Task: inverse folding
């Protein structure tokens, strides 16, 4: 005999089949699952663009070297990165390849009869042997029927099984994971997500140009946006006077959709719904309304300017850009809803409501850089090419005079940041979640067990076996024995 | 907000701490007294002088210890109710409130389980950890009772947080038992258990118990995460956003799924399973402590950063 080990010729398809079998093995699935867990860790430590773009920008400023490397590795977009996607797509495939065949197998097994009674029952658990008394098999059969066991009946024995629900639940659970993944991917392909800041009194029209940011799903088009409008009539915020913590936000709006005009309310936990699009109240802040005049008294700018809140008391920063003045003027400003002067920090806000609003600014003249083609933040001014004309501050109704013109704070109005989300996959994800719980419950609490009864002349033999452990099996068998005796 | 009720709540917490201290002391005495030197200590026939445990004579002490704990748990419940009245909502708005509710759930779980199983050996540990939790809560984490920020005003919050607290308590209990397993296994391998540990169930029972606890709460944890997602959908417009807190809830879920798999399908038992159980439990603790206190994201409601 030769000692040569025969290496099977795999060929291309053989190799493919081998790879598929490896990928869909349970071990691979579990390793992928663990990898998914580990891969999600960096995203909870390193700031992420989707949730905290400002922190990402700060990180870049602080660690320019590291952040370039991080960025190459997609560490600022972990959950959309190629490697993260690769893991969950592989897991998805593995799960399908692993669970679907098992589901088919289980479906057949559920309709088949239980396996035949083994020859040696005395090696099983809960074995007992006692004298027959009447027709033991008939009694056992009706007991099994009453307790809804499935049976294989032969001339001298019954093999009964119960608890297939455990396996059904287990499969339901694993299949539901696939459903959740489907829901998540569907939502990202067909949905959209956008944000827009709307001043009170302004109207939002649902077209792409109205958004400050807008992300469309990969298979969504601009024209898929449904044609509704929202006019923000009033925004009311309530705060706790002791802790300054917000207690309630309410936005009163007038909406039009498909020719119907309605008065509606948006609150933090109760969004508006237009078809599959929902509108959420995300944040709020103030827009000072200012008028800038030149030295002759001609208005060169007038209107509300959106300011960005910086802390819980709504100290806000912003920029008033007046390109129409000659030369151009810019105000780098902060707005304080309840102004107070402190020794250490200068002007601060001590309460989020408009109790003593004040606008503080430094005045710059020169090139605002608006024509340079580089996109600019509306909240900041690049003052490198500008000349400082001094500092100033105004309360509501006050006018400040600077060399070359005046600035007046006419009033202040609140703005709201609305978030628009169209997620058509969330129904699937929710259904998957519910199915997962149901599956888990039946699987974890289900008890799969077999019981056999054999009549051998004047002797009756009973035995049982639990697939995993099945507490209570002993008393169940005792009950059966009782009814046969 | 009602200050009188808030003060009342604090008094209840202090009184509960006193009772848990008494319970802890009683449990210590119980364990110490039960250790008995052999009666024939002066025997000269060379037999090994093995100490034994005799719980008959400490039966009364044990009852007293449990009675203290029941009273303490009732007071803690009163404290939570009073806190809720003072704030005008279920008192789960900051980390102090999570902690006292968690301590309550933990001791309640023990007392309920005690009715069915002989778990008194755990009492020493339970009273001690409740004491530590309450102490930390009232000194380091204490925040004035206050109304909820708007995002937290939701029924799903109640469901999400209460189930998460129950899961946390149970995960912790499973970890303690797995820890006891690992600790005692070392002794058993070297020979015998220390005398005071004789009453603790067999290694096999401990192994089963920690698995049972995890298997029992895993569906609830799944539900809690889903309830959180439903709440996030209504508050923030997305049901899942990989916020640090959400990410770690997911990691905990994955870790326990791996643990269940290792046990049910691969057949892990004993030491390896215990370590995996402890690892999974630590991801939960990490989420609770680290992300609440030092983390960023939408979920930092500990109230520790507010002035
Ligand atoms: C891909 C192949 C997989 C196979 C063949 C598989 C198979 C199984 C089996 C046989 C059980 C034990 C059922 C029982 O007797 O109770 C089980 C349990 C479990 N599996 Fe999987 N599994 C796979 C992937 C996964 C994945 C990816 C996850 C998690 C995301 C997961 C989560 C669970 C959980 C939590 C349990 C315990 C609860 C229960 O018993 O139903 N499995 N799995």
Result:
């Amino acid at each position: 005999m030769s000692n040569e080990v025969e290496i099977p010729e795999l060929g291309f398809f053989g190799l493919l089949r081998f790879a598929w079998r490896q990928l869909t093995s349970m071990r691979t699935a579990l390793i992928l699952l663990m990898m998914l867990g580990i891969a999600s860790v960096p995203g909870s430590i390193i700031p992420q663009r989707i949730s905290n773009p400002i922190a990402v920008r700060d990180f870049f400023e602080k660690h320019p070297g590291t952040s370039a490397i991080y960025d190459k590795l997609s560490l600022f977009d972990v959950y959309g990165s190629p490697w993260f996607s690769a893991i969950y797509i592989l897991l998805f495939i593995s799960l399908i390849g692993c669970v679907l065949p098992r589901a088919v197998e289980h479906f057949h097994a559920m309709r088949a009869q239980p396996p035949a009674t083994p020859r040696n029952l005395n090696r099983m658990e809960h074995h007992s042997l006692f004298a027959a008394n009447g027709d033991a098999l008939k009694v056992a059969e009706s007991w099994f029927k009453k307790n809804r066991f499935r049976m294989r009946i032969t001339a001298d024995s019954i093999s009964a099984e119960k608890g297939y629900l455990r396996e059904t639940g287990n499969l339901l659970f694993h299949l539901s994971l696939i459903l959740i993944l489907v829901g998540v991917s569907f939502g990202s392909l067909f949905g959209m997500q956008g944000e827009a800041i709307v001043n009170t009194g302004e109207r939002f029209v649902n077209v792409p140009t109205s958004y400050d940011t807008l992300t469309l799903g990969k298979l969504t088009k601009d024209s898929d946006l449904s044609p509704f409008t929202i006019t923000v009539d009033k925004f009311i915020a309530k705060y706790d006077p002791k802790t300054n913590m917000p207690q309630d936000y309410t936005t009163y709006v007038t909406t039009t959709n498909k020719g119907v005009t309605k008065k509606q309310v948006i609150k933090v936990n109760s969004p508006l719904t237009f078809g599959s699009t929902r509108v959420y109240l995300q944040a709020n802040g103030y827009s000072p309304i200012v008028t800038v005049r030149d030295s002759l008294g001609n208005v060169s700018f007038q209107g509300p300017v959106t300011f960005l809140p910086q802390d819980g008391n709504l100290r806000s920063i912003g920029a008033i850009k007046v390109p129409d003045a000659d030369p151009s003027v810019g105000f780098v400003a902060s707005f304080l809803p309840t102004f107070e002067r402190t020794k250490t920090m200068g002007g601060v806000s001590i309460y989020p409501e408009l109790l003593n609003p004040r606008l503080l600014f430094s005045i710059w003249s020169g090139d605002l850089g608006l024509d340079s083609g580089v996109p600019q933040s509306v909240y900041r001014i690049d003052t490198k090419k500008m000349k400082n004309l001094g500092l100033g501050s105004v309360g509501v109704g006050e006018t400040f005079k600077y060399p070359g013109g005046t600035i007046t704070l006419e009033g202040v109005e609140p703005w709201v940041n609305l978030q628009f989300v169209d997620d058509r996959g969330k129904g699937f994800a929710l259904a998957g979640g519910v199915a997962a719980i149901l599956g888990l419950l039946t699987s974890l609490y289900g008890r799969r067990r077999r019981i056999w009864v054999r009549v051998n002349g004047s002797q009756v033999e009973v035995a049982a076996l639990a697939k995993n452990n099945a507490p209570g099996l002993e008393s169940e068998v005792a009950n059966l024995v009782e009814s046969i005796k | 907000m009602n200050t009188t009720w808030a003060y009342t709540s604090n008094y209840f917490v202090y009184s509960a701490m006193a009772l848990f201290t008494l319970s802890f002391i009683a449990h210590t005495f119980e364990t110490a007294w039960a250790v008995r030197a052999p009666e024939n200590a002066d025997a000269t026939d060379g037999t090994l002088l093995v100490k034994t445990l005799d719980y008959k004579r400490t039966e009364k002490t044990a009852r007293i210890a449990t009675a203290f704990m029941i009273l303490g748990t009732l007071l803690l419940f009163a404290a939570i109710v009073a806190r809720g009245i003072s704030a005008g909502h279920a008192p789960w708005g900051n980390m102090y409130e999570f902690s006292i509710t968690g301590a309550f759930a933990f001791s309640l779980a023990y007392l309920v389980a005690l009715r069915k199983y002989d778990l008194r050996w755990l009492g020493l540990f339970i009273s001690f950890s409740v004491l530590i939790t309450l102490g930390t809560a009232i000194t380091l984490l204490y925040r004035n009772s206050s109304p909820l920020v708007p995002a937290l005003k939701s029924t799903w919050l109640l469901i999400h947080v209460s189930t998460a607290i129950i899961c946390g308590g149970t995960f912790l209990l499973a970890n303690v038992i797995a820890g006891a397993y690992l600790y005692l296994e070392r002794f058993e391998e070297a020979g015998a258990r220390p005398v005071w540990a004789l009453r603790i169930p067999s290694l096999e029972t401990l192994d089963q118990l920690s698995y049972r606890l995890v298997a029992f709460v895993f569906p609830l944890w799944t539900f809690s995460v889903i309830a959180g997602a439903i709440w996030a959908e209504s508050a923030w417009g997305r049901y899942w956003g990989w916020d640090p807190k959400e990410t770690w809830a997911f990691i905990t879920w994955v870790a326990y799924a791996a643990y269940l798999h290792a046990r049910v399908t691969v057949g892990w038992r004993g030491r390896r399973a215990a370590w995996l159980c402890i690892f999974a439990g630590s991801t939960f603790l990490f989420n609770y402590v680290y992300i609440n206190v030092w983390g960023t994201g939408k979920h930092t409601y500990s109230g520790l950063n507010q002035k």
In short: Chain A has a mean pLDDT of 86.
